[in-house]
Fold this sequence. Notes:
The complex is a heterodimer. Chain A is α+β, with helices and mostly antiparallel strands. By secondary structure, chain B is of the alpha/beta class. Chain B has a 6-stranded mixed beta sheet with strand order 3-4-5-2-1-6. In chain B, strands 8-9-7-10-11-12 form a 6-stranded mixed beta sheet, with helices on both faces. The interface between A and B is large, with 42 and 38 residues.
Amino acid sequence: MNKFDVIIIGGGHAGVEAAYACARMGKQSCLVTNSKKDIGKMSCNPAIGGIGKSHLVREIDAMGGLMGIAADHGGIHFRVLNASKGAAVRATRSQSDRLLYASKVKSIIDSEYLLTLIEGEVTEIKISNNEAQGIRLLNGAEIDSKKVILTAGTFLNGKLFTGEEKEEGGRIGDKPSIKLADFLLSLDLKSGRLKTGTPPRIRSSSVNWKITKEQPGDNPRPTMSFITTNDVHPKQMSCFITRTNKETHEIIMKGIERSPIFSGKIEGLGPRYCPSIEDKIHRFADKESHQIFIEPEGLTSEEIYPNGISTSMPKDIQQKMVRSIAGFENAEITKFGYAVEYDFFDPRELKHTLETKKIENLFFAGQINGTTGYEEAAAQGLVAGINASLAIDEGSPWIPKRDESYIGVLVDDLVTLGTKEPYRMFTSRAEYRLLLREDNADQRLTPLAKKFGLICKERWTKFNKKMDEIGKEQERLKNYKVSLKQLNEMNSNSKAKSKSHITALDALKRPEVSYQKLCEALKIKPVRDEVAIDVVTNKKYSGYIERQKKEIKKVKKNENALIPEKINFNDIEGLSNESKQKLSVVKPRTLAHAQRIPGLTPAAISLLLVHIKKREYTKNDAL
Amino acid sequence: MPHSFSDSIVACSSPPGTGAISIVRVSGKNLTLIVKKLGVKKIDDKTSIVEQLQIKKDLNEKCVLTFFKSPNSFTGEDVLEINCHGNPLIVEMIIEKLIKLGCRRAEPGEFSMRSFLNNKISFLEAEAIDDLINATNQDQLLAASKSLSGKFEEKINEAIEDLKKLRIYVESNIDFSDEQISDDFTGFKKDLSTFIDNFKTFVLDTNSSKYLIEGVKVGITGPPNVGKSTLMNILSKEKASIVSEVHGTTRDIILRSCKIRDYEFSLYDTAGIRDQSVDPIEREGIEMAKSLLDTCDVIIEVVDPTNEDFFVNYKNPVIRVRNKSDLCNTSSKNRIDASFNNKKGISEIKDALFKALNLPLRISNISFSARSRHAELMNLCLNELESAAALSHENSLELIAENLRRASDFIGEIKSPYSSDELLGEIFSNFCIGK
Ligand SMILES: Nc1nc2c(ncn2[C@@H]2O[C@H](COP(=O)(O)OP(=O)(O)OP(=O)(O)O)[C@@H](O)[C@H]2O)c(=O)[nH]1
Ligand SMILES: [Mg+2]
């Protein structure tokens, strides 16, 4: 019988990130997957990044994770979204060749000598005394470990819908692991049902490209990872844009009763933010047209992914609808779109470390916790992997903070709020958005990753060099004076009227002064973008950043107000049963945490507070 | 000592002193036992009975008892109200009797606090109740009762909703920029400025309502011997401060209240400001005066023809006056010309006070009661909105979003100010005992 430090079940995006983190932290790790071919597989649209999500990728990368690096090696199309807006909300998005992406993931996993890869179907997690101790495989073999991280959650008890047709099973072509699903459902964990959908896939040779609009990738081409350069990118491809029209909408409206969502066949709640095309047409009835991004699925793939028309309409309607769209007149559908309904476990039964509250040493990460998206899954894998490893070393856990990372926002949202629809990251979920930029993910997390032993020397050197250059550039700009005249020359409607001379660094605070123009006016050589963006943004945001920091301090007080672990929420006087229940599910660690529980009235928070104070009071009295 | 909620509390909830009837109120989780021990055989929910209560060995008092069973009472607990003859001695005896039976004296505002904690009233309602209790004139009473019926909360909710719509535009433009849901930035700017215009009116109403409820704090300052005390006496129609030709007559802070038009004003006469005073007592007075001015809603700065270049910058709005115009024949350029001895300039000063505070001359349709707490938060909210409006370019959308987020936090805090325990206790402890 083998004994590992950590067993990771599932080789998806959460699984590989978790396993890789454990191995880097020196843990004997074992990654168990149904098939080695599934490692790093992109089961849906092969895109990494995008608004909110790219922040997660950069953070995973800043902690030495593999997602950003793989996305650079597999990326065939790169674009910065929100490029015209400020640095905090700019987001890099990449389109991958799924084969290249998966093979990079596989090679990174293979290169970790502490990491063992096993092919097999897990049927059971060995649990004794509410402690996970290992796993059991279909062939009867048992593997023991100190910690188990479960990431195999793709479409538990999945039901696929295409119009009136219904099919049991996970992703089309995947065999669902029914035994494990049944086992998990027997664990007395709270579960719920969610729904998501995919668009039909189209043979690329059947698209009339001429009447679509080409959207080439950005030039210069951004990278997803901090330590790669864009010469690792393979050959690049363009995306294309087309739109739905009146006819498309009519076809859908006519057949809407035959859609499983509208006919009530699907119980799970779908995401509000990337709704199916029938949802969109139904909800935004006055919109005459919706945009569709035609995205390549890979360099050698025959298929394209029409992003924006996910649907579960019957096949005949899908066919008609697709062919009504410009460029798709003769389109050949290779796979029809479908909706899938599946189980997830209530993440409020997890600690901030992603360990389950009920079963010690068992961690959950990924879609099983109600999230959607590779990035969200990977981020959780990282958190679970790090915390499993820290726990083995008996170190204090890593609880990523909301003011430190999107990873912190993700974890805190999940364990506090739970979710009613597939959870996806957005920048608007982060109240400290201005502090959490893509470009400063390294500053926020790399020093911490260094402490955990998660990063290589190369990254640390590169990081320090960048910090050094930022410091130098700030010093340099402080030593240049800019005159009022120069400022006005940079912008004709500038209203500069204060002191006649300010430092070049302070000049950057003005919205109309760009770094480029400043360097030109001073006739100095600009530093590289990566350095300049930090210097400029910190200056432009300075007032706002100071205020956010003050806010953080204020919240910190309540964040430090610990709720005793042994508290019984049912003992709180005056609290309604509903509030007691909410508190008992989430088991908040701190007062601030309790304040974030939705539906908990301020009065309930006050009662909780009084209760804690009283406990302290009687305790001190007893002394 | 933190409040406990398991015990029963008692207090006199009618005004202290002698009156026709006094009311003693008791609230607790379960009052059955206490009622029984009082000698009452049976009392039903929401009924009143007349009962001889033995409050001292040889003293019986005929009382009217009314019982409200939890949760259908003001506090949400069992409540017993005892009406007795309005004699403070009798009231005290009844309270002492109840304490013997296991009650404790209520802290200020504890009834309201329990009511709030049991979700019987919202925070704004608790404040309105307090305003209603403390109203000393009809206008205040009317305003408070409108607030209690939810007028203020309604307006706050409206503003919150409008603000939410603006935020949805901004946030979806950031998070869904590729989906072209709404990209009409000019339209957004227009909506924002319309909202700000409406909100400003609301802020003004809140301010005047605050002054109606809390009164206006006016500080009178200036160099020595210019006529500050004379002005104080004229406005308060009293001989409150000593007037003399000696420099440095006033040293302590003198407070008088007076009614100007429909509002209550608190006037503070202070020591004359001069730098080279050697008298330590006078200097102490000057320091006190300076720090008082920071807490005033408005300041009247008086000078006379001998020191016209006296000028100080203040944090708060200021009305600058030159007194003793009878002693010179030039008129002042930027100050109100006055001669207090001849009652000249007084009505101009009154007008200026109303203008500086943005107060309507008469209370016509005040539709709610408000407090400094509300006004402060609304002003903070307005500042954020104005900063957002000043960002004219779409490339600052994330900063606009941040301003709007803070704006909505501030206005939200009006409804739920319980970010910390101290604040909660502080607010309720300003309430009266027995309420
Ligand atoms: N001629 C003239 N004298 C005035 C007028 N108003 C006040 N005085 C006189 O000015 C002197 C000072 O008046 P106060 O009111 O005591 O002055 P104050 O500013 O309070 O002085 P301190 O308390 O010493 O700072 C008194 O003798 C008043 O009678 C005015 O309008 N004309
Ligand atoms: Mg005086």
